[in-house]
Specification:
single chain; eight-stranded mixed sheet; 45% helix; binds NADP nicotinamide-adenine-dinucleotide phosphate; TIC32; NAD(P)-bd_dom_sf; SDR_fam; Adh_short domain-containing protein
Amino acid sequence: MGIFSLVTGRPGPSGYGSASTAEQVTEGIDASNLTVIITGGAAGIGLETARVLAIRKAHVIIAARNMEAANRAKNTILDEYEAANVDVLQLDLSSIKSIRVFVDNFKALNLPLNILINNAGIMFCPYQLSLDGIEMQFATNHIGHFLLTDLLIDKMKETARATGIEGRIVNVSSVAHLLAYEGGILFDKINDRKGYSDKRAYGQSKLANILHASELSRRLKVEGVNITGNSVHPGFIMTNLMKYSAVSMKIMKMFSFFLWKDVAQGAATTCYVALHPSLKGVSGKYFEDCNEMKPSAYATDPLLAKNLWDFSRKLINSASKA
Ligand SMILES: NC(=O)c1ccc[n+]([C@@H]2O[C@H](COP(=O)([O-])OP(=O)(O)OC[C@H]3O[C@@H](n4cnc5c(N)ncnc54)[C@H](OP(=O)(O)O)[C@@H]3O)[C@@H](O)[C@H]2O)c1
């Protein structure tokens, strides 16, 4: 796979490529025995992912901070597929309290959990701190998903044990992980305002998504748990994600239109990694255009992944006490 395949859509070893859509990569898959949580499932790539998983008959829980948008998303899916099994639950990933409430509410439903798709994200926002006092892109894109996964993992283990069905966790990262700060993750300066770069902070948070999936996968393998953890880059898709950089992105797209995908193609890699039977047992990997790819050197550094894990736990503990 490379730039030629990206532009032409030529399929890679998986049989799919940049032109494949989420519907195409899940064709013929029956997900009626699966329950899925997708964060940010009310808009953009997340909504298309939720729609396609729902038409494959999965029970889809859209986790969204904006309940109006979430209900609109649910109705859009139901309008197309009346039998869809879709629920909505409120979740603000930039708030530790909201994540804990979401998990309590989900557990109260007494549902199994087979698949967790950590999809929600923000990009290139000006410097700001979350309610818990953590730099906003790191808080939303990484810390929120780290805590959410941690609080749901027992439910996923229980489900995998009881059903014998492999659980899957998919972190929606980005090729922008290559933009991370020198050193990868600024452990000592995570909230540093002076050195803040909106691009590099986004890159750092997306690098964290990959490191989180790989360390999670390592731990699950050691425990012998039937759950995989992988990360994906969906491609370049014009969505509301670009709201902090709309003008520059539109200009960039004019010159690089051949590199961009539509939303149906943008949701393909996530759906492929979440559902495709050919990925049974595949864990700790990074995918682009529905094919395994090698991410940056930082993203494949096991020590950085372990340090990020420990750092994230400590950060959540101290923020929870404050
Ligand atoms: N689009 C691309 O070109 C591209 C490229 C590489 C990677 N990605 C990744 O793909 C994922 C989806 O992006 P997208 O393009 O679909 O963007 P999008 O259309 O902006 O969707 C992002 C979703 O995340 C939600 N979200 C943001 N902050 C949240 C929070 N604090 N709590 C809960 N939900 C929150 C948004 O909800 P609101 O509507 O309430 O804000 C929205 O539903 C992101 O992780 C992004 O980094 C996208």
